[in-house]
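Homework help thread (please don't just give me the answer)

Our assignment gives two proteins as sequence + structure token strings and asks us to describe the second one. The first is just a warm-up. Here they are:
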Amino acid sequence: MLAKHRSGPQLYGMPSFFSLQPHRSVISVAGADRVEFLQGLISNDTRKVAPDHAIWAALLTPQGRFLNDMFVADAGGDTFFVETERERAPTLAKKLKMYTLRSKVDVEDLGATLEVAVAFGDDTSSAFGIEGAVSFADPRLSRLGVRVIAPAGQAAALLSARGFTEASLAAYDALRLPLGVPDGSRDLQVEKALLLENGFDELNGVDWKKGCYMGQELTARTKYRALIRKRLFPVKLEGPLPEPGTPVHRDGEEVGEVRSGTGDRALAMLRLDAARADGTALMAGATRIVPEIPDWMHLPDPGASSG
């Protein structure tokens, strides 16, 4: 049975932690045309980026499939920082440079000089205003804390000096996973995933009024024709942690796939009918999985037509 999971992890009274994010990196997009340049490429409205506000967005294929996720933050002056996956950042930077044409922008991969951390817990206010760093509240959910871009090798010292205790990436995942929030290609299949199957609408990753961007047509059609048949759900695990990519079965029929996980929590892409099934076990290998609905997720009425 698909259980309601309304509040996510309880943070009250939790000490303030930080987790380095070694799998994340930074690209700079600088110049007078930076807003308009990214506006025509990504799923969110770059005009919303301000010193006190970052956005989450995706770059899609022309067919509307996922390529890269990113946070776009104001780095001061005429520069945006684009925080994205480290392994795939050089390819993304190269792709962005191809699109510059006559735009007054300069794209640079800063992975060798900057690093990313996340501050989370009961009070993250002291993660803002760190000299030499760029900090912003996670625009997806406030419970995910504050993301910090700092000079390479300095994030730990800067955050420790502000009273944060270092925690592992797995500790941050233990916060993220019950909330049902994806983490780039750990959870979204490159050139296959649809944004609306992975929470980009409810988690503030798509702007429906901004105008055209690459892949917009399929994204809009998916929303307005109610074409969603599966979603990325947080799941509890009863058994060993399955490897990412492990198929999920119901009565011998494949109905989904496990994505990232840690401990007894994971994310899984599941057919809606399977996730809602009452009394029928969902199995990933020898592990039973129990889907939940995070409080931010909106699912169609099971009795409504989705055609």
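The one we have to describe:
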Amino acid sequence: MMVDPGKFTRRRGEMPFLEHLEELRWRILWSLAAITGGTVLGFVFVHFFGVLRILLRPLEAAYADPEFRLIYLSPADPFFVTLKLAVVVGIILAFPVIVYQVWAFLEPALEKREKKAIIPALYLGLVLFCVGVAVAYFVALPMAMTFFQSFQADFLREQLEVGKTLAFITKLLIGFGVVFELPVVVMVLSALGLVTPEFLKTKRRHAIVAITILASLLTPGDIATLVIMAVPLVFLYEFSILLSRMIWKRKEEADRMKAASEAPEGVVETG
């Protein structure tokens, strides 16, 4: 079953196009308001509750220095670093609101069985994102720092600048969290009829190549970190095939039950 673009209009009671735009505008405004409020709270958390210290703990462990410090090159750097971290924290805090706004806009256009598949996918996505971030924080980041310290240590002295170092850390953490969302993407596409388990199986080799390339782009560049990201992604791809098969099996059963209920009386289906 493929998605019918026209059902967005039909499900919303023939809502005019301008009303769609008006609703979309308000959804976006509420999302931006949530990000703004989250950023304010994020600034408080970063400034008063040591978020920066938490992010630097893997580096402290890698350097075996509890007094580990980063340097900054401009008097305004500490403020802008705090502000950037506050924005990241704000987006994370606002993410449930953003997801709700997207869901509220799309939900009337979805069939009941599509909703049953997508709602669990949202909860699974939250869990997988947290797992990806945890893998990056506790495993990939310390290994990456240890790897980079092994190069030219006799000739170069480290002075890690706060802006570039935090950009490296957040890129790694968010990158792992996002790529661990692969099963969720497959679940949603399968629920909408855009992806089949047969298609995923035939594209397995292409997927492995794409996963390797993606992991090489998102990881710092060392082989160990690349493997830490790529291997779980391969398993997640196989898990995605299983989820897609389960969703399509339910679709087929629902279609058979619907066809049987709509069959005229006196008509006997033959196998």
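TA reply:
I won't write it for you, but here's a hint about the kind of observation we're looking for: The chain has ten helices and no strands.
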